[in-house]
Amino acid sequence: MSAPAPQNIRRRVVDGNVWLGHAEPGAREVLARLAVQQIHPDVLETEEAVGWAMWEEIKDAARAKQGDLVVILLGGRGAQALHRLLGEMARTSEADEILSRLDVFTQDALAPMRMENGFSFARDFERLLGHAFFKKVQSFSSMSTDTDDLEGELARYAAKLESLGGIDIFFLGHGPEPGAASHLAYIKPGSGATATDLAGIIPISSTILEHHVAKFKAGGSAVTEGDEAECRAATHILTLGPAAILGARRIVQSIVDAGTAPAKRASYRRVLETEISADSATRASQLDENPGLWIRLHPNVRSLILPDVIS
pTM of whole model > 0.85? Predict the structure, then answer.
């Protein structure tokens, strides 16, 4: 049974971007009271080391909390080492106690697209994590991309997340944009996202589409020419929004693919070095122009990178 659409969700449209979020408190009020944080990246030598560090984060969360853990998976290259590790563990019994407590969600998706398309995050998760993983976790939820009611399904998706008590770990990446800007999840520059938006449906840009195709190919996803044609015909992106990121108890960012996406070096450095304004109107403008900065407003972030990200 799907979760009902939340009754208190507000719908906003900004230049064709549809955002679903809370009406109260106001976005400017929330933004004004958030303290700016500095990010001190953990530089690890290998992608495998990043994967192990992400697994340790899950174990730490499991030790700190009783009951189920709500985890947002990261697609693309950023968490592939973790997913392979989880898949290996799922084929044994060594991690069953933790795996059985995981409520797993995806953070974004391209639409419209068949759910079985090889460029979908759900299929890539299945490839890397394996069937044993999905049999052992408490639940797995992905955004519906082949429905006529994208807004309704996305609202129910956000409602399900909130009904489970919120996000324990939000695994995030870092996507480059023109002008050394960046996106988190798929919150793109100029999309009008605010601090109270839980999820959104945004028109796809050529930059993000090319980045999506490239990272799936670089990561070894099993795709066909038909899959790629359908992917390139997608018109919108479904994404969790800033409110979901800010509301997570822990954010763990991983950036391991600067070699294949070199623009990440400049865009990541800009996130680290930008002076975020105390004035709420100016701050809102900065975040809309460079959504990667949202991570700087969360008090509990770990950023895992390889040496070439800051070389």
Answer: yes
Contacts of residues 274-282 at CB distance under 8 Å and 24 or more positions apart, as own/partner, are 276/36, 278/36, 280/28, 280/31, 280/32, 281/28
Hey, where are the domains in the chain? 31-309
For residue range 266-275, list pLDDT tens digits in order.
999 999 999 9
pLDDT in tens, 24-67: 788 899 999 999 999 999 999 999 999 999 999 999 999 999 99
Which residues make Cβ contacts (< 8 Å) with residue 21, sequence separation at least 6?
9, 10, 12, 27, 194, 196, 197, 198, 199, 241, 243
Q: Which residues contact 180 (CB under 8 A, 6 or more apart)?
A: 263, 266, 267, 269, 270
Angstrom distances, CA of residue 234 to CA of 8, 114, 134, 194, 292: 30, 10, 27, 24, 23
- The domain 31-309: what is its CATH number? 3.40.50.1360
